[in-house]
Design a protein that fits this description.
2 copies of one chain form a homodimer. The first copy, chain A, has 15 helices and 17 strands. With 433 residues, the first copy, chain A, is an alpha/beta fold. Chain A has a 6-stranded mixed sheet with strand order 2-1-3-8-7-6, with helices on both faces. Chain A is globular, with a radius of gyration of 26 Å. The C terminus of chain A is likely disordered. The interface between A and B is large, with 103 and 104 residues.
């Protein structure tokens, strides 16, 4: 079989089929393979069952020249992947004494005797390439058959898988591909906020025929949509970049003010970069989002450059004590109201001596709603120096979705203020008030 | 084809194969189906490509009597699922005028004219059952062929999918199954913390042969492992509960002090229940976890009963201002040290007047590590009244994993204190100090 850009992924584990674990490994591998120009054509998930694993691997190898399996490489009683694939490739398992020594050493350093069952972790199918895994006891393995088809086995522990994928698998596949022909899949993603998916679709409808053979896909996100422009390999490699750039420019021309980033840019990181660039700091005052916005800001390494303090003021008493919200304001207007969110953000900004701030107060549910303020009602505020923007949104979804959407919308509000700091009517009104 | 308990799931979308979206729908459906006694035998993910969708659906229907597809039901240019499956089932698409009226009404209520492209949202394959979707514009659809094989189409928007699955699909499948024979899959999960997977495996090794035909699977989690005991349908239905209970008791007898819950119990919810039961409140003081612990506590509805305030003190200045940590302590021992985490937790408890508290300070990386305090070094503290437990852990993994593990380990520390409040040597030492 000719080596091409197509890869299939098989993730293995009853915990996946029972829904106890979300398959983040599949998403990670897919993303990294796509970024490296490979095309994942199908993903399959099967349970810890030797027959099902064998069927899935055989089926995948009949369609694709590269199959990556994750999971089922551990030393416990429900791990079948290695013996099953070894048998499919007619490669008997043999103990690799260097791996065994390294395993024993690993345990010795931790001051533990190696459990005997771990010897199987040093077994390697005859002729397989070993991908060293410094993060765990199960190494990666590459098997290749007479037709050149490749099966790669990786452990399912996320940080081990990620390390092996980036350090070993992608470089290995790039080398294996070197010299082969055919256009690689390439794409760009444009991230928008503050505009509905159907409105995006209408705005770009006339652009679609003009950018063929490139396609555009719509990916609804919390409080925004992503647009992915994809070149599927039809164009000559030399023309792909220009075609993608042209398509991106055409889309930007109609959606400009809603585009906050590209690729996997996170809105909290985009805001962080703007703050760092201007030497500004930010603080957060959260009620219904309960720390989620602070978490999103601090998800990013280096966020200590601009983030020093955040408070979660879930109780009314905390809003008074940490943010100086007046009890009278809350009594008159309620904790979920514009006057309260205004006092929250002002208090947060003043207490933390921060140039920028985000405040949120709302009803995440499932309880606590009323006909006047149903579940999902959230007041958001963003502040930059003396400017304040506030917005009320009633979000759909369950508790988790309401919290995620509220966090994203609050970040979007601050982004708008950072991007376009000229006072608008709303801001002028806010100042007068 | 006889209706059995086996279900296949097909998730559709280029965004999944490109790794831009994590497939939470697949996990949700799998979990709910398993909880209802159905067995998901395989999951497949394909892109927005008519041929690949058709192949996947045909292949799945040749193995299973029920296939559930999610995604590709929208009104945009990359949505193919409905026409493809309609063709497979030889059921032409026809506009359902009642659906169309409801769609127009939906737009009217929002004060928007319905975009013409949305008419396709009212098209239904002839003879298909419509599952109403009050949350969005794409309804669910059930197609059934002459052999009784069922294909269910659901939208990919998570909250729409969840609503349809719980309100329509599971009840429909229960009715379809009623009267059929064969044991359903049933399982119980036991959640542990503070013990390594291999240690769990060794402890329960002798139990495994005694509980056959039940099996036990190991699911490593952040700072702990889950154990899933499964009955795969071999036992008579009347014996399953007793067998699961017996297996659970045997496992509990060897792992007792490490078991914090069952099923999908979240450690933050377990702690919340203990606090509510005793009428206690909790506060958080987070540095490297940046709000994640507060978020986890407030993920749970009703958490305002015991959680009022949390602070994120990322900067040293914030640790002084909000928690009264002395500058001298930080200068002498560093911000990541036992003395600092002790002052953080005491300050948090005093300021919030809370009976319980959690404090965390550490280095989440990728920068900021040293040979003395490498990336991953975290000091955790838990307090209950005048008792304080502290612990230093060097966590493996990347920034995200270190933060997740630190949050879980900090919650585990407080859980230990809540469960076993008798002063241990550590606590006595802490009091003396």
């Amino acid at each position: 079989m000719k080596f091409d850009h197509n890869v299939e992924i098989i993730t293995i584990g009853d915990e996946l089929l029972l829904g106890q674990t979300i398959d983040t490994n599949a998403a990670f591998l897919s993303r990294e393979l796509a970024n490296a120009g490979f095309r994942v054509t199908r993903r399959t998930t099967v349970g810890d069952n030797a027959e099902n694993i064998a069927d899935a691997v055989q089926d995948a190898l009949s369609c694709s020249s590269v199959v990556i399996c994750t999971g089922g490489l551990g030393p416990t009683q429900d791990d079948f992947t290695k013996p099953v694939v070894a048998e499919l490739f007619d490669a008997p398992l043999e103990v690799d004494t260097r791996l065994l020594d390294a395993l024993r050493e690993r345990y010795r350093l931790r001051g533990i005797a190696m459990p005997e069952r771990n010897i199987c972790q040093a077994e390697v199918p005859r002729g397989a390439l070993v991908l060293p895994n410094p993060r765990g006891t199960a190494c990666g393995l590459v098997l290749r058959d007479a037709d050149g088809r490749i099966c790669i086995l990786l452990p399912g522990v996320p940080h081990e898988l990620r390390g092996l994928a980036l350090e070993e698998v992608i470089p290995f596949l790039r080398r294996a591909r070197a010299g082969t022909v055919g256009g690689a899949i390439r794409f760009r993603t444009i991230r928008t906020t503050g505009i509905a998916e159907s409105a995006v679709a209408e705005k770009i409808d006339s652009i679609l025929p003009r950018i063929r053979p490139l396609t555009v896909a719509f990916l609804p996100q919390f409080a925004g949509s992503d647009l992915r422009i994809t070149s599927w390999g039809e164009l000559p490699e030399a023309e792909v970049d220009a075609a993608l750039s042209d398509a991106e420019q055409q889309i930007r021309s109609v959606l400009q003010s809603h585009i906050y980033g590209t690729g996997s840019d996170d809105l909290a990181a985009v805001i962080g970069a703007l703050l760092r660039e201007r030497g500004l700091t930010i603080t957060t005052a959260e009620s219904c989002t309960g720390g989620l916005i602070a978490k999103r800001i601090t998800d990013h390494a280096g966020s200590s450059d601009y983030f020093g303090t955040g408070v979660v003021t879930y109780a009314n008493e905390a809003k008074q004590r940490l943010l100086d919200v007046s009890p009278q304001t809350m009594a008159e207007h309620g904790a979920v109201s514009e006057p309260t969110v205004r006092e929250m953000i002002r208090g947060a900004q003043r207490r933390a001596d921060a140039a920028a701030a985000i405040a949120v107060t709302g009803i995440a549910g499932p309880g606590g709603g009323s006909s006047d303020k149903p579940v999902g009602t959230v007041w958001l505020a963003a502040a930059l120096h003396d400017q304040v923007l506030t917005r009320k949104i009633v979000f759909p979804g369950d508790r988790e979705e309401i919290r995620e959407r509220a966090a994203q919308a609050a970040l979007a509000l601050l982004w708008k203020l950072l991007k376009d700091p000229v006072p608008t009517q709303v801001q002028v009104a806010a100042r007068i008030a």
